[in-house]
Amino acid sequence: MEMTERHVMGLIEMLYKMADDQLIIGHRNSEWTGLGPILEEDIAFSSMAQDKIGQSLALYELLHELGEQDPDTVAFTRNAEQFHCCQLVEAPIGEFDFSIVRQYLFDQAEALRFEMLITSVYEPLAMVSRKFRGEIKYHVMHGKTWIEQLSKGNEESHDRMQQALNAVWPLALGMFEEGDYEKEIAEVHIFAGEKALQARWMETVVPFLSSCGLEIPAHSDAVLGGRKGKHSPELQPLLDEMCEVFRIDPSAEW
Amino acid sequence: MKIKSLDPRIERAQLDSDSQEGMNSPMDQFQTYEVFEQKKRGTHHIHVGSVHAPNAELASVFAKEQYTRRGQCVNLWVVPTAAIYATAYEDADIFETTPSKYHRDPESYKVMDRIQAFKQKQNA
Asked: In whole angstroms, what is the distance from residue A54 CA to residue A59 CA?
């Protein structure tokens, strides 16, 4: 099947939401730098935040090749309503329990998304997916190891994991908000779609969380809107902070 | 008094400068694990440092970012520090005469000359 303008628009829409998710969660998680629960975790969490920003750069570069603005302009000059990230990634870091549950649920989705994209007909994206496979595998390993440890720790740590899961779950479901071109990108095999990804994610995270003695929140509605530019009030202050240096001096090297 | 900082994260945390919270007693720490990295398959694992962790799995997760964030690595070992039995420094004299036992050094054997000569012939 031939690629039409609508297919390219679908591709661009998908790349924006993936890159924006990574940039924003990367910036959010970097807020733990210097404040992590122990030195070793501080370094691990900060490294992963850095990885996320690197992943977003690779995707913004693909967008640039497709005719969008250069990565710095895209990252630093848009307002909240021009971002396509889900509301999961913009929520404040909260306590470590919230951040670690979010980290796992996000990265598990990301790992599955990239795994699906390895066979994408859009070869530059398939290449990026292959490149980051190991990096994301570590991120998932990190999240799982912590959640298992804390869920099976003591009563307090188990309760806090459960409460964090209850808080993160509806936001996490918002990752799979469908775009306007789901049919188009699926029919030319760019990506099988958000519904397919969500099904694979559920098959992966539900048995794992259950094995940790955690209950999946029932009757939980997804927090939607992020993909269409509808964000929580927390996103704009994050952007103001992230873009501060760029706005003072766009030519600054740092 | 609240701590004033240019770092917005510190400002948000509203930290009390007189607080004793988070001050741990010396024993209130995780145990340590020694970390060994292997740079290439088939080569030796080399000791690179240690990490604090509640168990081996998390020690491995920490060691990966602590010690392999720069440079190549294909495999990591973590071993509880407590599992290591070490010699005492006051017994270091047990090694004292070793450097003079040159007969244990294969480099000192005459046969090395013949091996070198053979190698040169092969390469010629």
From this structure: 9
Q: What is the mean pLDDT of chain A?
A: 96
pTM: 0.86
Question: Who's near B73: CB < 8 A, 6+ residues apart?
Answer: B37, B38, B39, B67
B54: which chain A residues are within 8 Å (Cβ-Cβ)?
149
What pLDDT shows up at residue B21? 64
Q: Which residue range(s) make up the domain with B84? A: 30-123
pLDDT of the residue at B71: 84
- Please report residues of B whose CB lies closer than 8 A to that of A241: 8
- Residue range(s) defining the domain that contains residue A131: 5-248
Q: For chain B, say whether A67 makes contact (Cβ under 8 Å).
A: no
Q: ipTM greater than 0.90, yes or no?
A: no
Residue A156, amino acid:
E
Query: DSSP class of residue A215?
Result: P
Q: Which residue has the higher pLDDT, A79 or A1?
A: A79
**Number of domains making up chain A:** 1
